[in-house]
Amino acid sequence: MGPWARPRDERLRGMPARGILLLGPLQSGKTSLFGLLCGKGQSEVSLAGTSHTAVCGSRGEFGFIDVPGVTTLFAQSEEEEVTIDALLALHPGTLLVVADARNLRRSLALALMAGRLGLPMVMAVNFIDEARLRGLSVDIERLAFRLGFPVVATAAPDREGLGELVKALHEARPLRHAVALPADLEQTVGKVALALDGLSTEPWVVAALLLAGDRLARRLVREELGEEAEAEVERVTREARSAFGVPPEVLLTELFHEEGGRLAAEVVTKIGTGRGWLEAFGHLAQHPVWGVPIAVAVTAALYFVVGVAGATWVVDWLGANVFDAAVLPWLADRVAMIPWEPVRAALMDPDFGIFPAGVVLALGLVLPVLLFFYAAFAILQDSGYLARLSVLLDRLLRVVGLNGRGVVPLAMGFSCITMALLTTRVLHTNRERIIASLLLMMGIPCAPLLGMMLVVLGPLPVSASLFVFGWIGFQMLVVGVLASRLLPGQGGDFIMELPPMRFPRLRQVARMTWTQTWRFVVEALPFFALAAVVLFLFNRLGGLDALQALAHPLVNGVLGLPDEAVQVFMKTLIRREAGATELSHQGPAFSNVQLVVTLLVMTFLSPCVNAVLVLFKERGARVAGLLLAFVTAWAFVAGALASLLCRWFGVTFE
Amino acid sequence: MELSRDQEHALETLLMDEERGGDLEDAASCAHLERPSAEVIALLVAGGLAELSGERIVLTAEGRTRAQSVLRRHRLTEVLMANALGADRKKAFDIGCRMEHQMLPEFVEAFCTLLGHPATCPHGRPIPPGRCCVSRRTVVESQVIPLTALRPGERARVLYIQPRTHGRLHRLTSYGLSPGVVVELHQRHPAWCIRFEGTELALARDVAEDIHVTRLPD
Lengths: 654, 218
What we know:
Structural class of chain A: alpha/beta
Distance between the termini of chain A: 88 Å
Strand order of the largest sheet of chain B: 3-8-4-5-6-7
Shape of chain B: elongated
Number of strands of chain A: 10
Radius of gyration of chain A: 31 Å
Oligomer: heterodimer
Mean pLDDT of chain A: 83
Largest sheet of chain B: 6 strands, antiparallel
Structural class of chain B: alpha+beta
Strand content of chain B: 15-25%
Order of helices and strands of chain B: HHHEEHHHHEEHEEEHE
C-alpha cells in the first residue's frame, strides 16, 4: 500500500480509502443508485471548512462514496468543489460513472475526462427504462468496447441491472478511448504536468485543473510537493495559460463534449418516435383545454379512492373491529391499574386522552386515510401524471404567488394538513412556502373533514354544497392574490422535468407509499401525542371553558349561530373532523344557513393542533404566529360575511 | 476589385460632384476631402469606374453603383451619429468617413432598417436607397431568438443562456440544457415544453425567455 492508502486529508477522515467513487452529472439518479447499492449502511461525513457533506456506504467488500453531481471536472460551484475535493484528496480506487441514458453526451464527456485520471472505471447507464420509453436504444456492448471498461444498463428504482453492476465492479478497467487534443493544447497541459513530477494523482488531470485556476489542485500541489514547488508550478501555469486567447478549460470542456457527442451518436439509436398512446395521453393531460376534463376525472377518482374507500370504509371498519372493539378496551384495562386519576385521565380521556385523541386518532383515522392517499399519489407520480398536472396548473397557481410545483403540497392538503405542511419543503423559496402554508392552514379541508362535511351537507340542497365550496375557493383566491402581492421576495422558477408517461410500477408505488407513510409515523405521530397532552392540560386548567365564554358574543352575535356552535368550534380546534362530528350531533339545533356558516368557519379556522405545532416547527415562531392570527381572524370575518350575505339576500338553503 | 480608402473617397467625391452639378473643387471642399490625386483617378479609370468626358471626369455605370454604396454607408452612419446618438454634424461626418470603409455590406440593410430607412443625411442630402428601403422592411431578422419565439414542432440549437439568477442557470444545466444542445419545442401553453435528447422539460415563460437559440431547418 502506498502513502495514499489512508485519506491524507483530515477533513475527509472516516471515508473509505480506495473506495468506489460515484461520479455523474446531476439528475442522473446517482444518489438513488448509491442508496440501492449500500442499503441502510450509509453514513454522512461532513467536510469541515465547508458546509458540504459526502455520503459513504458499503456493500460487501466494496466501499462507496457519493458526491454531488458534476458535468465537468472544472468545478464552478462550491457544491462541485466537493466532488473534485473527493477525487483529489480521497484517492478513490475505482470510478463508477453514473451516466444518464436520456442524455448520454454530457455523461460521456465527463467519463472521458475523468478517464484521464487513469483509474479503473465502470459505467452504469442509468434511466435506461425512461430512455426506452422515449424511443432511445443504447448499444451497451458497443459502448463498453469503445470505452474499454464494463458498461451496465441500469434503472435504479426498479433495481434493473444492479446485480450485473456489482459483478462488473470486479472487472473495472482504465479508459481505453483516448480523446485526441490539438497539439498546442496537449503540449501546454503537458508542460505543466512535467512540473508536477512526484504527485500521487495523475499529473495530466492536476495540470488541467491548475490551468483552470482550480484552488483545490493548487492545495494538492502545495501539500504533496511543498511551497517551493507550488511557486514554480504556478509560474509555469501562468506562462502556459497566457498563450491561450480562450481559457484552456473552456477548450477542454468543448473538446470532451464534442467527443462525448460523437460517441453518443455512435451508440444511441432512435427506434421509433416513442409516441405511443400513453405519450399522447401525456400531451393531452398538459393541454390547456383537454387537460381540464382529465384533471377533473383524476380528482374524482382520487376522491373516491381516498375519501370514500379510505376515509369511510376502511376507517369505519378499523374503528368498529379493531380500535373500539379490541385496542381501546385493552388499553383501558391496563390504564385502570394506574392508581393516580390525573394520569389515567391524561391517557384515556375520550376527548383529550393521549390514547383516544392522540395515538388512536393518528393510527385509526389519519393513517389509513394517508395510506390510501399516498398510494393514489404514488400512482399519479410514478405514471408521470402529476408533473403534467403541475404544468397545467402552473398559470393558475401563479395567480396566488406559487407555481406548478405547488401542486404537490396543496394536493396533499386534501389528505392531511399536517403532512402537507411538511411537504412544503419541495418549494424553492421561503415566500412560496409561506403562501402555501397560509392556503393550507386557511382553506383546504383535509380528508377527514371533507368526509364529515359531505355527511353534513348531504341532506341539504345542492346549492348549499356549491355555496360552501365556491365560497372556500373564492376566499382562497382572494387571500392568495393578496399574499402574493404583499409578501416580499421573488417567486421560484418553474423548471420541471416531465418524466415519460408509463404504467405505474407496482414496486415503485409500494415503496413510495411505504416511505411516505413511515415518514408520517415518525414525524407527525409525536405531534399527535403532544397535542393531546397540551389540550388535556389546557382543559384541566379551565382554559377551554374560559375560551368558550370569551367566544360566545362573537359566535352568537356576529355569526348569528346558536350557542352549540361554540362547542363545535372548540372541537374543531382539537381536530377538525371532531368538530364536524359534533355538528352532525347537534344538527337539529341549527338552521340550514347556520349549518353552512358553521362549516365555512370550521374550514377556515386553523386546522387541528397537530398542524399548528408542525407549522411552528417548519415556519418558525414569528411567521407561524402571524399566519395563525390571520387565519383565525379571517375565519370569523369570512364566516360573518357569508352569514350576512345569506341574511341580506334571504338565502335559506331550505 | 477591392478599393482602397482613397479610391472610395474619390468615388464619393465624384458622385457628390454629379449631385451638385458643380466643379470637382467645390465638391471636394464641401465633402471636407482632398481633391482626388491624379494617381487615384488614374486607378479608377483603369478599373473602369470613371472616365474622361471632355474636360471632366465622370463615373461609369459600375462606378456610380460602387460610389452610391460608399455614400450610402457614409450617410447612414451620419444619421446614426447625429440623429440617433446626438453627435454634432461635423463629428458625425468624420465618423462617417471612417465607418464607410469598414462596414460590411451584409450588415448595411439591417443597419438601414434599424434606422427606419432614412431618406436624407443630417446635412439634407439624399441617401442612396437600398433594397430594404424599396420594400420598406421594418423587421430586422435576428438569427438569435429567445426560446419563446419558436413555434411548436420547431427545432433549435441553444446558443447561450442568460439567466436572471444563478440558481436558474444551475438548475437548467443540471438537466443537461447547455449551449450546443438541440431542443424541440412541442408546446407553448400553459408552459413551454421542450425536449432534447431523452429529456423533457416544462419551463415558465420567464425561464424560456432566458434561453437564446437559433432556429434549425427541418
